[in-house]
Request: fold
Amino acid sequence: MTDKEEDRTGEAVIRLDNRLDELERLHAFFEEIGVRSNWPDRLKFDMTLSCEELLTNTINYGFPQGGRHVITLSVHSSPAGVEIRLEDEGVPFNPLEFEEPDLSLDLEARTVGGLGIFFAKRLMNEFIYERTDTGNLVILRKTI
Amino acid sequence: MIIVTTQREGAAIMSIEGRLDGQHAQTAEASFLALAGEGNTRFVFDFSAMQYISSAGLRVVLVAAKKVRSMQGKLICASMNEQVRDVFEMSGFLSILETADSTEEALERLKA
Reply:
């Protein structure tokens, strides 16, 4: 193991409100972890994209009753890989039950429904969903 | 995200700089629709300064491509960096959209 890989160990947590302008903080958060944990650019991009897709879904559809809600994202980084836990108190939503997009359709017929979840599933090695007592928990794992 | 619009050789060039994500997608869509509303039918989306795109951003490009087709116009996406291109590739959009390596190349093709 090189020194650089040892440095990849770390924990970080961010709590985000259910507003789309919070994505600004999400990007800054991953920029900072990426530097601190010596992530290759590719890894940083894949983790950011997967989390943004899930967060955008939660912010747009998770709270039909309105009001301010907190979404918690925690990152555990190690030389072997990265684990992310995304927890919200939104309406039950299992992304794994979402229909996969049909990538073969022509321009007229294409939509982007389900594309974000498809990206996250494709970019991660593991995608786990759990319905908790208070909301939803998604665990993402990416091996390095 | 910053959007810079330029008119050149009868085409509208929309340079989308920074991040086209869930936060900025609506603004980008409104900018495009305003240009289409002004009567533009030939577009270049210049992605040379785009750092990041997610499915919310792809939606804007899809909306634009459909609108341009309905106007019998043309839209070319130019100068994607590698990571942005990978997102387009993963979505299957590269097979339904026209792309070019540079804005110059896109303008040449729009003239033809």
User: Anything to note?
Assistant: Chain B has one domain: 2-103. The interface with chain A takes residues 19, 21-23, 52, 54-56, 58-59, 62, 65-66, 69, 83, 87, 90-93, 96-97 of chain B (CB under 8 Å).
